[in-house]
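for the recovery benchmark. tokens below, seq after
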């Protein structure tokens, strides 16, 4: 917060400049003054970048998702039709995946990292969104926010290899983001945080005591343990910083309720509206949103079979029709979210230019349990968009998805040359 009781010399100069401008205007004189860097307004500063990663647990039917042609002016595929009004705001990628992942459904836990737990080095099994969250830290109330519908995605992991918790109920998410606790609850939490801090000091001291007398494998385990302790300490200090800061007041309909965990037509807009409000109020800058992997019947018109069963369609027309309804709904939710961001004006333009919205899945074709040719879209973020990119390399291999993640992290402000197994960046996206 900036002090309001003292006027800086700059503010006085600006006020004097306004007075002179008004006088000249009244006299019928128009003079354009040069731009002085020393008197630059705060609005000229670069706005913070945001990141939203939307995942689906059961891939996308390739024939319904991928456009047939590359470059600009391609014909939209059936599933991408909700994005028709946003052609210049997103990019579709073909022939891109995580080259070392062959874990079928288990790939959802690796979608944002590109590595499997069994082969990860200490600190490597961290998802891309959490690298971004660490970069922001507690500049915002929440370093990151995570939601998932009808079951956990499990795609977001801390640097110590701990799965990040996801919210599945819009009421709980609203309470967390925008409802202030009572004074008694705040006091109780302060005491709890103080106690946790004391315990962490104790266990860290005990761990350091053993450090000199253990072998290399145990030292690696100890490093992971101490990393988790450091993360917990940072979280406690960050939570303490925001304890006495009131949460933002937002307009939100709390009376809207879903019939069940698969009432997507109610749940999805509610959850994405809350993410939009969190972006608009700068409550967080990093988000993941998931459509879960399950075999429940999703409450959408025309859908009568379980989701997982539909993904194993056997090319039956009735199942493919239902699957296309579900997958088109996913893209429609992304398009609706993008529209809200694009309609929200900022000092530099609109929120979509300041927010990267990524869509993808760890499965390419769920019917074959394939982890190749993942369905991927990136929107917003100030990138150059409007194309369907063929990312097949001259060698005939796919481009690593971590090349895109490296580009996104750099755009977010993270100083990195390579995220995990990336081999480069996506220069095609840079204006």
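predicted aa per position
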């Amino acid at each position: 917060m900036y002090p309001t009781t003292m006027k800086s010399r700059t503010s006085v100069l600006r006020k004097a400049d306004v007075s002179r401008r008004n006088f000249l205007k009244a006299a019928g004189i128009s003079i354009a003054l040069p731009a002085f860097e020393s008197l630059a307004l705060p609005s000229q500063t670069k706005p913070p970048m945001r990141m939203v990663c939307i995942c689906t647990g059961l891939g996308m039917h390739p024939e319904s998702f991928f456009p047939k042609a590359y470059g600009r002016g391609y014909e939209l595929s059936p599933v991408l039709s909700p994005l028709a009004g946003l052609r210049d705001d997103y990019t579709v990628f073909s022939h891109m995946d995580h080259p070392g992942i062959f874990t079928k459904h288990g790939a959802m836990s690796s979608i944002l990292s590109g590595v499997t737990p069994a082969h990860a080095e200490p600190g490597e099994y961290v998802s891309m969104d959490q690298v971004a969250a660490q970069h922001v830290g507690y500049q915002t109330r929440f370093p990151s926010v995570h939601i998932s519908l009808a079951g956990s995605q499990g795609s977001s992991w801390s640097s110590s290899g701990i799965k990040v918790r996801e919210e599945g109920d819009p009421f709980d998410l609203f309470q967390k983001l925008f409802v202030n606790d009572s004074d008694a609850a705040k006091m109780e939490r302060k005491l709890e945080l103080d106690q946790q801090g004391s315990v962490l000091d104790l266990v860290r001291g005990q761990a350091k005591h053993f450090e000199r007398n253990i072998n290399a494998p145990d030292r690696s385990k100890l490093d992971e343990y101490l990393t988790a302790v450091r993360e917990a300490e940072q979280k406690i200090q960050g939570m303490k910083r925001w304890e006495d800061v009131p949460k933002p007041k937002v307009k939100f309909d709390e009376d809207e309720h879903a019939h069940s965990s698969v009432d997507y037509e109610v749940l999805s807009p509610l959850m994405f509206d809350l993410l939009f409000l969190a972006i608009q109020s700068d409550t967080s800058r990093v988000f993941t949103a998931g459509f879960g992997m399950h075999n429940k019947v999703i409450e959408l018109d025309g859908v009568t079979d379980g989701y997982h069963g539909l993904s194993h369609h056997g090319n039956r027309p009735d199942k493919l029709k239902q699957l296309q309804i579900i997958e088109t709904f996913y893209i429609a939710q992304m398009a609706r979210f993008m529209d809200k961001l694009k309609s929200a004006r900022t000092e530099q333009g609109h929120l979509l230019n300041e927010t990267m919205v990524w869509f993808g899945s760890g499965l390419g074709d769920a019917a074959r349990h394939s982890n190749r040719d993942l369905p991927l879209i990136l929107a917003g973020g100030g990138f150059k968009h409007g194309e369907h990119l063929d990312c097949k390399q001259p060698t005939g291999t796919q481009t690593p998805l971590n090349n895109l993640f490296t580009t996104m992290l750099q755009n977010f402000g993270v100083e990195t040359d390579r995220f995990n197994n990336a081999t480069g960046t996506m220069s095609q996206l840079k204006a």
